[in-house]
Write a structure and sequence with these properties.
- The protein has 408 residues and is of the alpha/beta class.
- It is built from 17 helices and ten strands.
- 50% of the residues lie in helices and 10% in strands.
- Bound molecules: nicotinamide-adenine-dinucleotide (NAD).
- The site of nicotinamide-adenine-dinucleotide (NAD) has 23 residues, from helix 1 and helix 4.
């Protein structure tokens, strides 16, 4: 199916940028909100992105104006009678999203695809609440949507292959990188990211190293920014919502670090609050140092660990192997999603977690996980597939095959 016109519902942080991305590809897009001020703020955001391109000499102001004219801001559903796809980006509440899809059902043609930008909610459940579950799909953009290339495409249980193919093609037409991910809590990137961020926070709470030491070590390793800078940017409330949800779904290995709750209680929600792991403006990180001193003093000596890059990276690799084992995505897609979504590199090369395991040697990764498990517990239990591959001699690059195949 060719997409001639799109709709976006919700003109907040994500919706406005998604509408900008669609207009940039040359398609008309109706952008709907329930709040005039949010709609105006969304349009201002879109204009600012285009102005940035004009200022950099990437586009003339005439071109920018004609792209902006493709976005039709509205408080009604009047423009939704001929849209081929709608992407909802309303708040992360199942009831609101279901209500929006019910409203859309009344105004959109039967052929319209309903996509959700949800970060975590079940696509199957959203689909089941409509009369077109075969046309309902997850389309998870990353923030900021006008910059980040990756889009996770998540079919629900009843989504048709035709809908998946149409949405993959549409995503490519937006000059984004689509990765099809089977439905699971956190989808792919957030599921892999969370154990890494949580382990960093555990290390900090134990007093194993300071936030800036851990951040610097992870940047040295090849991450575009350290875990605490990233969490302060994402917002600790968002991280804590995702973390609690993943804990409720996956259990022990995702047990949130106690320091998260202390920061939340203190209203240190990250950059937007002027304070998170770090202090911004006139705020300092002294209160965090105080919390760390209290937490680490309350821990028995055997629970006060040491910081190492392995302690953060091995859980990320292990979660990637679990995703592969559960057929959430293919090995190339898992690696591509992590490179495109998190900007992970290793020795200057863009390398996802499975390719990294192949480079290090699967036997080495397994030995490190076993060691970390003996020291810190079950959250480091190696994925079954990792052990199977080691037993079979699929040790990675040095053996010609691991998670990927290598020619001699
Ligand atoms: N912010 C992120 O980093 C991020 C990243 C990926 C995905 N998401 C997901 O995108 C979605 C939107 O998040 P956001 O950060 O843009 O939220 P936001 O709060 O910035 O924007 C939500 C917008 O929806 C509008 N809205 C509320 N109810 C509505 C309704 N019934 N009809 C139309 N508009 C309505 C609000 O007025 C607001 O403008 C959520 O599902 C979120 O989980 C967010």
């Amino acid at each position: 199916m060719y997409i001639f016109k799109a709709g976006v519902v919700g003109a907040g942080a994500m919706g406005a940028e998604i509408a900008q991305v669609i207009s940039f590809s040359g398609l008309p897009v109706v952008l709907k909100d329930v709040d005039q001020a949010m709609l105006e703020r969304g349009m201002a955001r879109i204009r600012k992105i285009y102005q940035g391109r004009v200022d950099k000499g990437k586009m003339s102001s005439g071109e920018a104006e004609s792209k902006i004219a493709l976005v039709e801001p509205t408080l009604t559903y009047d423009g939704f009678g001929d849209v081929d796809i709608v992407i909802e980006a309303v708040p992360e509440k199942m009831a609101i999203k279901k209500a929006v899809f019910a409203e859309l059902e009344a105004v959109c043609p039967q052929s319209t695809i309903f996509a959700s930008n949800t970060s975590a909610l079940s696509i199957s459940e959203l689909g089941a609440a409509t009369r077109r579950p075969h046309k309902v799909i997850g389309m998870h953009f990353f923030n900021p949507a006008h910059v980040m290339k990756l889009v996770e495409i998540i079919p629900g249980l009843d989504t048709s292959q035709e809908t998946v193919d149409d949405v993959v093609q549409f995503t490519e037409s937006l000059r984004k990188i689509p990765v099809v991910v089977q439905e699971c809590p956190g989808f792919l990137v957030n599921r892999l990211l969370m154990p890494y961020l949580n382990e960093a926070t555990l290390c900090l709470g134990e007093g194993a190293a300071t936030a800036s030491e851990i951040d610097a070590a992870m940047v040295d390793f090849g991450m575009p920014m350290g875990p605490f800078t990233l969490m302060d940017m994402l917002g600790l409330d968002v991280c804590s919502d995702v973390g609690s949800y993943l804990y409720s779904e996956y259990g022990e290995r995702m047990t949130p670090a106690p320091l998260f709750f202390r920061l939340m209680q203190a209203g240190r929600l990250g950059e937007k609050a002027g304070a998170g792991f770090y202090g911004y403006g006139d705020q300092t990180d002294e209160p965090v140092r105080q919390m760390i001193a209290e937490i680490s003093a309350s821990l028995p000596p055997e629970q006060r660990g040491e910081f190492s890059v392995d302690r953060l990276i091995m859980p990320l690799i292990n979660e990637a192997v679990l995703c592969l084992q559960e057929h959430i995505a293919t090995a190339p897609d898992i690696d591509m999603a992590v490179v495109a979504g998190l900007g992970m590199t290793y020795h200057g090369e863009r390398l996802g977690p499975l390719a990294l395991a192949d480079t290090l040697g699967l036997d080495t990764v397994l030995a490190k996980l076993d060691e970390l498990r003996a020291r810190y517990g079950e959250r480091f239990r190696p994925a079954r597939l990792l052990r199977t591959k080691v037993r079979a001699g699929h040790l990675g690059k040095k053996a010609g095959k691991g998670f990927h195949e290598y020619s001699a």
